[in-house]
Design goal:
- The protein is mostly helical and 169 residues long.
- The chain has two domains: 35-109, Serine Threonine Protein Phosphatase 5, Tetratricopeptide repeat (Alpha Horseshoe); 117-169, no CATH class.
- It contains eight helices and no strands.
- It has helices spanning 2-20, 38-51, 55-66, 73-88, 97-108, 118-130, 138-151, 157-168.
- Helix 5 (97-108) packs across helix 6 (118-130), helix 6 runs antiparallel to helix 7 and helix 7 (138-151) runs antiparallel to helix 8 (157-168).
- The chain is globular and about 50 Å long.
């Protein structure tokens, strides 16, 4: 009987100690994090919320995309352009054309030899043409419309022709 009791006590101690030991996980360092394009992820998440008319989360994710450390400049610039549109159109915030223009300038900046966001460049041209924020200047407007065309905006041809006609007269 003593032997049986001793066996039971030994087994129960072994069983309890086996349950209380925690598994050891090996941690490894992430060496290549640059493959994660957080600007793309944040931009697309913002766009999904915008399509659902959830402007608060859309703005939040576009701000995160615009100022994310990892990611493609294309998506950062697209997020800045979207923030400018929200500011210009008073979506969720008061309309502030100066702030919208600041967003457009950041989005239009050339980075690494690549042109900025073509839509933002076109909006800057429209600001010059209509005299919004800037003093009205058709020559500056034409210059910016040509930059937008060079950046890849396909819908700027009529604007270029219109401003050229104005400058000829």
């Amino acid at each position: 009987m003593k032997h049986l009791l001793l066996v039971i006590l030994t087994a129960s101690c072994f069983y309890t100690s086996a349950q209380t030991t925690k598994p050891v996980y090996k941690r490894t360092a992430i060496t290549k994090i640059s493959t994660v394009d957080s600007a793309l992820i944040y931009y697309n998440t913002g766009w999904d919320y915008y399509k659902l008319d959830s402007l608060g989360p859309a703005r939040y994710y576009w701000e995160k995309a615009a100022y994310s450390y990892f990611g493609t400049n294309t998506y950062r610039q697209a997020a800045l352009y979207r923030l400018g549109l929200m500011q210009q159109n008073a979506e969720l915030v008061d309309s502030n054309l100066d702030m919208a223009l600041d967003y457009y300038k950041k989005a239009a900046a050339t980075i690494g030899g690549r042109p900025g966001n073509a839509d933002a460049i076109k909006n800057i041209a429209a600001y010059y043409e209509s005299g919004i924020v800037y003093e009205k200047s058709d020559t500056k407007a034409l210059e910016w419309y040509l930059k937008a065309k060079q950046a890849g905006n396909q819908f700027v041809d009529e604007d270029i022709l219109r401003v050229r006609d104005i400058l000829k007269n």
